[in-house]
From TrEMBL:
Signal sequence, renumbered to the chain: 1-23
Classification via PANTHER family: SERINE PROTEASE INHIBITOR 27A, SERINE PROTEASE INHIBITOR, SERPIN
Record domain Serpin: where: 61-421, 464-824
Predominant place of localization: secreted
Protein name: Plasminogen activator inhibitor 1
Molecular-function GO term, any one: serine-type endopeptidase inhibitor activity
Superkingdom field: Eukaryota
Family to which this protein belongs: Belongs to the serpin family.
Keyword NADP: no
Keyword terms, alphabetized: Glycoprotein, Protease inhibitor, Secreted, Serine protease inhibitor, Signal
GO cellular component: extracellular space
PROSITE patterns for this protein: SERPIN
Native species: Camponotus floridanus (Florida carpenter ant)
Localization, UniProt: Secreted
Length: 832
């Protein structure tokens, strides 16, 4: 028998009650003019605009895809129910446990942003309306034998409207009765007995429950019972069943998705807040839809929706689904909560010694019924912790995916898969096997889904990869701007094709579809234009073109609309005049910090296109260093030994940690705008990595999101040198070692740039500069890509030894500048 304190039971329930959960359109070959059958009274006058904010549903679709992979029948889950349960765990989690939850759930980078996100969702769901009924509530029961941390109780009450109740969990019958009664009340009696086995509460010390109930009606009375007909539903190519179809002819928003190979139908509920979407495959199977679906594809498809007259048939169906999510969550990357290393110490402290709390099961119960009158849907999550389109037809007579969304916040309340409308139950079962664990070396290795870290995180891998390659080529101090180089290279993607394009995409870690590329770039560029509280960031790009070149209108338009790149004609035949104009532009956009990027006479007369990108950053420290505290102290330079340099010092609260995977101390020094920081990486074992080669390589294996989430507020004596670095780098060689080869050679494919001509990249030159002092930082960078005709071929953190630094946007995790300090007394280093 495990000790009482070795267990924690977390129980979450979410019930969604909606008047009609499935929308399907039916084909009637006899009807040829649908519009003529729609009376003015039945036309929907709503002006549908899709949710245009950042979607918080990557985890939702990852979870759904994983469950669909391992279950052959109908599937139903409530993503928001699961996330509300897990985020209450996250609030009390520490270290690896917290990092895994944050990464896989794609939580915002800061705890405050996470609280704001869920607080906004809850406010939206709790907003009163006469058009529908929605109840939502959360409770945490903690055993009397455990002391609840006041900070945790206050946090969950303030941001998640969750009450913490002390009770005697040893009295399993009484506590089960209370929980079941509360859940039944929240769900209007639809789940009467969530805990039907009181033995599961034995040895428990904590129980978390959340419930959601939604009841609504269709915006219009679309489906009359007298129109219901029996017809075939094709489970697969060889098997069909007879099911009842609801039928209507009306106007709906509808789209064809080429990426999903499917039709998408939207049916709104009364109140103009909720809607159900049905995704019906064309010739492909529903498995193709499940594999390809994600919030970015859906966002693009929803914006393409048009209101059309449609002939709609939806099968009536009713089923329940029970899933044990431990195996699924482990595969997605949430593993620590299930191991005896789980750190949930932020929730409670015990009155006597006990083992670590750990999750023993995550169970999710759901149910749905769809008929002419509407939809009833309910869900419960239990976490046990122990140790142009013409008029047409939409006929859902084959397996399909559906989801219900709060369109004001983009929150997915419910997502499901119907393989057979007649099947009424389904379960994943409790898998009794050794599951993957980072501490079980014999277990099968599970590779996290790329979506777990997000496309943006992979886009960030380029930053450290470039730093590592440049680091190999240069000695001494170094400063470069990955963001500036990335803006220039990403804009090149628009004008390339074939192998040239594939190499750029691979190096930048970008997906092939232009929508996602442009979305990521726009998000990055938005973060690179701001002025707040004395901290200024600005980016500018310009394409200089020979007046004789006839460029592709599509490419120039894409540059302007998606990358903010303006286009100027420039006669490269007069090399001095051309260099002067380019340098004048660079000086203007770097606030005169970079005087020139091109020396007069160095621009080849046969240059056809030149792309320049400039990034300017000026930041004041959030906590300035006292100039009177600056002292001349020893900085240990490899080979040369001790050199006296000005060392700034501050004693205050900083986010800091020793990161074992890097074998380095890391400190974050925030700037005054609250969204950018300088990170300093100081190797713990100085003698084993004097030139920072190992550290720069190891940084390639840790995402910036992971690094930031690993840092903790610490009272710190911080001492760093003043330094001033300027580097002029040719990035061609580093990029070639990263796999970008075609753009420099005879096979370069720039057909998107111009018609009937061949081009190649001459050089990619970046001039970057940084100055760090007691008040803050000034950093600037200019990147030039020359294209020529294809001619043939309370701790103490003392940075008194070499270190790597990075200036990071905390919202996007974009690395604006990165570099290396080998000797602060040297003001300039690095040339090409």
């Amino acid at each position: 028998m495990r000790s009482k304190l070795e267990y924690l039971l977390c129980f979450s329930i979410m019930l969604i009650f909606i008047k009609k959960c499935v929308c399907v359109v039916t084909p009637n070959p006899v009807e040829t003019n649908i519009s003529s059958q729609i009376t003015p009274q039945t036309e929907d006058d709503e002006d549908f605009v899709p949710y245009h904010g950042e979607r918080f549903s990557v985890f939702d679709w990852m979870l759904f895809r994983n469950l669909a992979k391992t279950n052959a029948g109908n599937i139903l889950l409530s993503p928001i129910s699961i996330k509300l349960a897990l985020v209450l765990l996250y609030e009390g989690a520490q270290d690896q446990t917290a990092r895994e939850l944050a990464e896989v759930m794609q939580l915002p980078l800061s705890v405050l942003a996470t609280r704001e996100k869920f607080n906004n969702i809850l406010k939206s769901l709790q907003a009163p309306s006469s058009a529908y009924t929605l109840n939502i509530g959360s409770r945490i029961y903690i055993d009397n034998n455990v002391l609840t941390r006041q900070r945790y109780a206050a946090t969950v009450k303030t941001f998640y409207n969750t009450d913490v109740i002390n009770a005697n969990l040893s009295d399993t019958h009484t506590i089960a009765t209370k929980v079941n009664s509360w859940i039944s009340n929240v769900t209007n009696g639809h789940i009467e007995k969530m805990i039907d086995n009181e033995e599961t509460l034995e040895n428990s010390v904590m129980l978390i429950a959340n419930g959601l109930f939604f009841k609504g009606a269709w915006r219009r009375k679309y489906f009359a019972p007298e129109n219901t007909r029996v017809s075939k539903f094709y489970i697969n190519a060889n098997e069909s069943v007879d099911v009842q179809y609801m039928h209507t002819i009306s106007r709906f928003y509808y789209a064809e998705s080429s990426r999903l190979g499917a039709k998408i139908l939207r049916i709104p509920y009364d109140g103009s807040k909720f809607a159900i979407y049905i995704i019906l495959p064309h010739m492909s199977t529903v498995d193709h839809v499940i594999k390809q679906i994600n919030p970015f594809v859906l966002s693009s498809d929803l914006w393409a929706m048009q209101e059309l007259p449609l002939n709609v048939w939806i099968p009536k169906f009713k089923f329940e689904f029970t899933s044990h999510l431990e195996n699924t969550l482990r595969e997605l990357g949430i593993r620590d909560i299930f191991d005896n290393t789980a750190l949930l110490t932020g929730i409670a402290k015990t009155k006597r010694a006990s083992k670590h709390l750990q999750v023993s099961d995550v169970m999710h119960k759901t149910g749905i019924e769809v008929n002419e009158n509407g939809t009833i849907a309910y869900a419960a999550t239990e976490i046990q912790i122990g140790n142009k389109i013409e008029e047409g037809t939409f006929y859902a007579n084959q397996p399909f995916v559906f989801y219900i969304e709060d369109e004001t916040t983009g929150t997915i309340l419910y997502v499901g898969l119907v393989r057979n409308p007649l099947n009424e139950t389904g379960t994943t079962g409790k898998i009794q096997q050794e599951l993957p664990s980072r501490f079980n070396l014999n277990a099968t290795t599970v590779t996290p889904s790329p979506a777990a870290t997000g496309t943006e995180d992979r886009y960030g891998f380029f930053n450290i990869d470039l730093l590592q390659r440049v680091n190999e080529d240069n000695e001494g101090n170094l400063i470069l701007s990955p963001a500036s180089a990335k803006v220039a290279l990403t804009s090149l993607v628009e004008g390339t094709g074939g192998q040239t394009r594939q190499e750029l995409l691979a190096a930048l870690r970008l997906p092939p579809d232009e929508f996602t590329i442009r979305r990521i770039t726009r998000r990055t560029l938005m973060s690179l234009k701001s002025y707040q509280n004395g901290t200024e960031i600005d980016v500018a790009t310009r394409l200089w073109i020979n007046p004789m070149i006839r460029t592709s209108p599509g490419y120039t338009s894409a540059l302007y609309n998606n990358y903010g790149t303006d286009i100027q004609q420039l006669n490269f035949g007069d090399a001095n005049v051309a260099a002067n104009r380019i340098n004048a532009w660079v000086r203007e956009n770097t606030k005169n910090n970079i005087k020139s990027i091109i020396q007069p006479g160095t621009v080849s007369a046969d240059t056809q296109i030149l792309l320049t990108s400039v990034l300017y950053f000026k930041g004041q420290w959030m906590k300035s260093f006292d100039k009177d505290a600056t002292r001349t102290r020893c900085f240990r330079v490899p080979v040369l030994g001790c050199k006296d340099v000005p060392m700034m010092e501050s004693t205050s609260q900083y986010r800091y940690a020793y990161v074992a995977s890097l074998d380095a101390d890391v400190v974050e020094i925030p700037y005054s705008n609250g969204r950018t920081s300088m990170l300093i990486f100081l190797p713990f074992h100085e003698e084993s990595d004097p030139y920072l080669q190992i550290l720069s390589k190891d940084l390639s294996y840790v995402t910036m999101r992971t690094l930031l989430s690993s840092l903790n507020e610490t009272e710190l004596v911080l001492s760093i040198p003043r330094f001033n670095i300027e580097s002029k780098l040719n990035l061609a060689s580093p990029l070639m070692r990263m796999g970008v080869l075609d753009i420099f050679g005879t096979r370069a494919n720039f057909t998107g740039f111009i018609h009937n001509d061949y081009l190649r990249i001459g050089n990619i030159i970046q001039n970057a500069k940084i100055e760090v002092n007691e008040e803050g930082t000034i950093a600037v960078a200019a990147t030039e890509l020359t294209i020529v005709p294809l001619m043939g071929n309370t701790a103490i953190f003392i940075a008194n030894r070499p270190f790597i630094f990075a200036i990071v946007d905390l919202n996007t995790t974009e690395t604006l500048f990165a570099g290396r300090v080998m000797d602060p007394s040297m003001s300039n280093s690095g040339n090409f």
